[in-house]
Amino acid sequence: MVNAAIVGLGWWGRTILKLLHGNAKLRIVKAIDVNPDSAAIAREHGVAFAGELDAALGDPAVQAVILCTPHTLHSQQIVRAVAVARRRRARGGGVQRQSCRAGGRARATI
Ligand SMILES: NC(=O)c1ccc[n+]([C@@H]2O[C@H](COP(=O)([O-])OP(=O)(O)OC[C@H]3O[C@@H](n4cnc5c(N)ncnc54)[C@H](O)[C@@H]3O)[C@@H](O)[C@H]2O)c1
């Protein structure tokens, strides 16, 4: 079982949160959104809520992040997550990342 944080609880993040409920391989343990109103959605699903990506990246229980934020943010959020993953890997842990849709930024991110 991989414990993941979902980042962005807009239309797609909420959809993913519902779809992953009860999944045997991936469990959402934290939800992040800059909009504090999204805390209610996280509460409905019994998931801890925070307003900043760092709250997920700094949580040793979070092994992966699922980015459901606007795609213009993905590149910098992936870079932040990978930096944490590298530090964790050096200590024997890991963070997984989702793809980046924006072509030019995706290349720079990789
Ligand atoms: N809507 C779809 O059908 C669909 C399908 C597949 C993928 N996607 C992708 O999912 C992503 C989100 O799309 P959406 O339609 O849900 O958009 P949305 O605007 O409904 O949701 C984006 C959410 O991200 C939050 N957010 C913004 N900046 C943030 C930050 N720095 N940290 C944390 N949260 C932040 C916003 O408050 C909002 O709740 C996009 O990349 C989109 O391409 C959307």
- Sheet-strand content, in percent, reads 15-25%
Mean pLDDT: 89
Which oligomeric form is depicted? single chain
**Helix segment count?**
5
Global structural class: alpha/beta
Shape: globular
Rg (CA only): 13 Å
CATH class: Alpha Beta
Would you give the CATH topology?
Rossmann fold
- What strand order characterises the main sheet? 3-2-1-4
Number of domains as seen in the coordinates: 1
Run of helices and strands: EHEHEHEHH
The CATH level-2 architecture is identified as 3-Layer(aba) Sandwich
Number of strands: 4
What's the main sheet like? 4 strands, parallel
Helix content estimate: 40-55%
Distance between the termini: 26 Å
Bound molecules: nicotinamide-adenine-dinucleotide
Low-confidence stretches: none
- At the fourth level of CATH, the homologous superfamily is NAD(P)-binding Rossmann-like Domain
Structural write-up:
The protein has 110 residues and is an alpha/beta fold. It has helices at residues 11-19, 39-44, 53-57, 74-90, 103-109, and strands at 2-7, 26-32, 48-50, 64-67. Strands 3-2-1-4 form a 4-stranded parallel sheet. Helix 4 (74-90) runs parallel beside helix 5 (103-109). The longest helix is centred in the last third of the chain and has 17 residues, at 74-90. Nicotinamide-adenine-dinucleotide is lined by residues 7-13, 32-35, 38, 53, 68-71, 73. Residues 7-13, 32-35, 38, 53, 68-71, 73 line the site of nicotinamide-adenine-dinucleotide (NAD).
